From TrEMBL:
Transmembrane regions listed in the UniProt entry: none
Species this chain originates from: Erythrobacter mangrovi
SUPFAM superfamilies with a match to the protein in the record: P-loop containing nucleoside triphosphate hydrolases (SSF52540)
One Pfam family of this chain: AAA_28
The protein's name in its UniProt record: AAA family ATPase
């Protein structure tokens, strides 16, 4: 079972993914963060604040490449963002329709878990240079994309990370 955690930047996705990993579950780190780290280490320009389209194309490729190993893991795998978020970013960056790049139905658990904007947790950093208003805009676009693709979206409440993890595990039958 491949489970998506998506939503607003700074909403606690990575902290939640780390909590699930601490509990022994397999996780797939966010493609965007991996790309930012690689590009910064290598002096590259496929960064969301320099070349958003190149960044999104790399994210789509990386997220697509993550799927085979995740699918063969034998247990649940929790994705910090992933292919759907990457394709949505590519569509936003290019203004073009990339519907064919979205995964086929059935690849992921049909419930996507989204974290809403949580301004008191949001902070800019070397890896997250956009502001809160851009993060909220992205969140609103993702809500529409997941609905358009037929996912049920579970908006996770603002509560301690342990309770968020418990909630997800209960909803997918692993509590």
């Amino acid at each position: 079972m491949l489970v998506i955690l998506s939503g607003c930047s700074g909403g606690g996705k990575t902290t939640l993914i780390e909590e699930l990993a601490r509990r022994g579950y397999t996780i797939m780190p966010e493609p965007g963060l991996r790309i930012v780290r690689e590009e910064r280490e290598n002096g590259g320009s496929a960064l969301p604040w320099i070349d958003p389209a190149a960044f999104a194309r790399r994210a789509v490729e990386m997220a697509r490449n993550d799927l085979p190993s995740a699918s063969s893991s034998g247990g649940p795998v929790f994705f910090d963002r992933g292919l759907i978020d990457a394709v949505a970013a590519l569509e936003f960056a290019t203004g073009e329709d990339h519907a064919a790049a979205y995964p086929k139905p059935g690849v992921f658990c049909r419930t996507a878990f989204l974290v809403p904007p949580w301004p008191e947790h949001f902070h800019q950093s070397v890896e997250r240079q956009h502001g809160m208003s851009e993060a909220v805009g992205e969140y609103e676009r993702l809500l529409k994309v997941y609905a358009r693709l037929g996912f049920a979206t579970e908006i996770l409440p603002r509560e301690p990370v342990e309770r968020r993890a418990d909630r997800i595990l209960a909803m997918i039958g692993l509590a």
